[in-house]
Amino acid sequence: MTLIAVYALGAGLLPPDRPVLHADDEGFLRGRAVFETLRVYAGRPFRLEAHLERLERSAAALGLPAPDRGAFAEAAREAIGAGGEPDAVLRLLWTPGREDAGSPTGLVLVSTLPADLEQARARGLRLAVLPYAPGQRLAGSKSTSYAENLAAHDEARRRGCDDALLVAADGTVLEAPTANVWWREGARLLTPSLEQPILPGVTRATLLELAGSLGYEVEEGVYPLARLAAADEAFLTSSVREVMPVVELDGRPVGDGRPGPAAAALQRALRARAEAA
C-alpha cells in the first residue's frame, strides 16, 4: 500500500512525506495508541460510524481520552478527497500525544489498496497454525500493540504460508493476526464467539447481517481446531481484504482445497452492501 493523503487533527491536510509524530509521542515510545482500518468504496468509507465507535471503545480500554468522532469523520472526508483514489484504505490513529503534554494526537491516513487482493482471493490462502496467548486486559481492543500478531504473520510466511491461524493453548480456534475466521459445515457457518479474546470485527458483524439472506445459519461458539480442519470450506474476513477464502491449513487442504461457494457468495453480498451504502 502507498500512502497518498495525511490529515492531522488540529493541523489539517499535510504532505504524505512530512513527519507528523514527535519522538516522545507515547504511541511511538510505548505503543500506547489505538487505530482503525477500513475500506473506501467509490469515495465513501464503509461503516465509518461503527469503526469510530470501536475506536472509542479501544481508547477507553487503554485509558486514553475519548476521540472526537465528529472531527475524525470530517478529517476522513477531507483526506479521502485529497487522496484522489475512489477505492482506497482509510486508517484512523489516536495516541495520548507527547509525554506529559496532555494533548492527544489524531491522524487520518489514506493509502492505495494492496495490489494482490484479487489474485489472493482467486487462489485462496494457506494458513499456518500458531499458538497465541493474548493479554486479557486489551483483548478485543484495536491497539497498536500488534508486534505479536505481526510476528505470527511473519512466522507463517517463513513456513511457506500466506497467513497465520491463531489458536489458544488448548487448541481452541481464535482468529488470524488481522482478521476473523469462519468456516462452513453444510449450510451452517461457524465463527468464534466474541466471548473469546478476539477482535469484534466490523466486517464480521456485517456478515452476520448478510448470511441469513443467503440461506446460511450462523453459529458462534468455542471450537477446537479439529472442527475447522474438517470443514467444507473456510475463509477470513477483514475490512481491507473483505472475504478471503482459505484453501490450506498446515499443508492440508480445507474442503476440496479450492475457494468455496459461501466465501464467494458472501464476498458478492458484502461488496454490494458496501457499494450501496
List the helices and strands and how they pair.
Elements: E1 3-8, E2 12-14, H1 26-29, E3 34-41, E4 44-45, H2 48-61, H3 69-83, E5 88-95, E6 105-111, H4 117-123, E7 125-131, H5 147-158, E8 163-167, E9 173-175, E10 180-185, E11 188-192, H6 202-210, E12 217-221, H7 225-229, E13 233-238, E14 242-249, E15 252-253, H8 261-276
Parallel strand pairs: 7-8, 7-14, 11-12
Antiparallel strand pairs: 1-2, 1-6, 3-4, 3-5, 5-6, 8-9, 10-11, 10-13, 13-14, 14-15
Structure description:
The chain has 277 residues and is of the alpha+beta class. It has 2 domains: 3-111, Aminotransferase class 4, branched-chain amino acid transferase, N-terminal domain (D-amino Acid Aminotransferase, Chain A, domain 1, 2-Layer Sandwich), CATH 3.30.470; 117-276, D-amino Acid Aminotransferase, Chain A, domain 2. The chain is 30% helix and 29% strand. The protein contains 8 helices and 15 strands. The strands form 2 sheets. Strands 7, 8, 9, 10, 11, 12, 13, 14 and 15 form a 9-stranded mixed beta sheet that branches. A hairpin with a 3-residue loop joins strand 13 and strand 14 (242-249). The longest helix is centred in the C-terminal third of the chain and has 16 residues, at 261-276. The model has no long low-confidence stretch (mean pLDDT 94).
What is the level-2 CATH architecture name of the largest domain?
Alpha-Beta Barrel
CATH topology of the largest domain: D-amino Acid Aminotransferase, Chain A, domain 2
Helix-strand makeup class: alpha+beta
Q: Give helix % range.
A: 25-40%
Number of domains: 2
Radius of gyration: 19 Å
CATH class of the largest domain: Alpha Beta
Q: Main β-sheet, in a few words? A: 9 strands, mixed
What is the name of the CATH superfamily of the largest domain? D-amino Acid Aminotransferase, subunit A, domain 2
N-to-C span: 24 Å
Number of helices: 8
Poorly predicted parts: none
Shape field: globular
